[in-house]
Amino acid sequence: MLSETLPKKPSDGLRALAASQDAERLRLAVAGAGEAAFDWTMSDDRILWEGASEIFTGHIDPERLTRGAVFRGWMDPASQQKLATVIAHVAPNDCPFELEFEAGSAMGTAWFELRGVRVAGADGKAERITGLLKCTTETRREVQRLTYLATRDELTGHLNRTSLRTELADAIDHARAEQRTCAYIVASIDRLAMINEAYGFGAADELIVSVGERLASTLRGSDVVGRIAGNKFGVILRHCSEREISIVSERLRAMVSGSVIATRRGSVSATISVGAVWLPSGASSSQEAMLRAEEALDRARASGRGGFSVYDNSPQREMARLRLMAIADDVVAALNDQRLLFAYQPIVDAVTKAPVHYECLLRMAKPDGSIVSAGHFIPAVEQLGLVRIVDRRTLEMAVAKLYTNTKVSLAVNVSGTTAGDPSWLESFVNYIRANQEVADRIVVELTETAALNDFEESARFVSKLREMGCRVAIDDFGAGYTSFRNLQMLHVDMVKIDGTFVKGISQSPDNQIFVRTLVDLAKNFKLKTVAEWVGSDEDAELLRSFGVDYFQGFHFGEPILDTEWVAA
Fold first, then answer.
1. Where are the beta strands (DSSP E) in 382-500?
2. What mean pLDDT, rounded, does the chain reach?
């Protein structure tokens, strides 16, 4: 019995229980905590256990662990050494310690946490070790699972963008320290939107997974691949000469295009375009490397499908990069100084011309008091990964304005970048859920291309918003590939007809046919329509006759910072 071997002068809670000789109380406490208590005497190397059978079942026969030598041998080598250090320590005081160790098991590798006290004898050497042992295998596996999910792309299982960027930073640092070269490649699946439209989104997901597998199978063991966007993969070549970049890129493109990819909806022929940057000379950081590879990719795609380009550090591009970084710095300062503002543009009823809601158009006030429109800084913050912060601030500003103006409805935009980020969309939904009393006065606008890029995620996002009372609009409709079948599946409330088809429509018979068709189809699906860029009474009257529900454009109200209802 454990209580018979414990010292009469207790020094911690466990020994106090034992000293009371309340063995049943000890047994219940240990069992309730899911732990086993032990007392290990150094003189005879014997270990007495309480509750061991419950802890070790399925791992090892408890009878085998009654000797310290066997117990130590059961541990992994590193933990054996740590425990040996504890035992060998000489000190007059009792010393508490903690140790987590790995052990062999009939059920596979198991992990245990040992918390104990080294009890000193008169000479300061270890006389006994008393403590508790707990199996932590399930907890450790859950931590490993969560860590895996936090670092991996859910669809492909490859690293996600954040983790790949960390790996890239490490590769650049090592290449610089070892005076060698490496490379970063970004590969984009060509025309994925068209594949979505032709085969469906399930087939497109299968295609993305297969392309990722083909890329990974082509790489060396030291190389790393990750999915950085809906149709893009990033590849780190840890050891790569400048000449090898084109060779590897050609191999990657050939691996993808060499044979068709089988999906449940049929066989799909795919190609990739590739942009690359040679490191570390081509970029000083992982962020800069990713940006420059994207620049190279843009040039590769400009030449058509299956293109390839390497970043060229030209003075003109360097100046453009510096301008980009300067804009990003301005935006960060504006966020910190609360200098992001809204210009409100009315969306009016096509019949009464009265405002039904206002679109919140982002503006930035510079330190000198001048106002900059979103078009001057949003592309930069999207490229540099700041748009998630900006979009979140936009939502917070709109919600705050709704609380102070109880009779107004506002439309807020979600950028294409954040629309493809499931975790960001979830945080967006949670924020609206926390402010649900104003949700029925929020219109969330998604661009057509953003909604199409990850259709299933967009559909979930739209569904959650509408459940809370928000309305959802598809912006710039007609500029992309969305079909009304997809709109019906998204269950949005309205579509905003792209302004390029509306501007001067009374003088364009082709646009009249196109817009009239869109409006008729929208009515069949019970969707409201908004015509953007309406510029004259003549255009407005024609659009009203087509059945357009709402107008937006300078003819009915310019975006302004101070409106009567804001001042009220």
1. 410-414, 442-447, 471-477, 494-497
2. 86
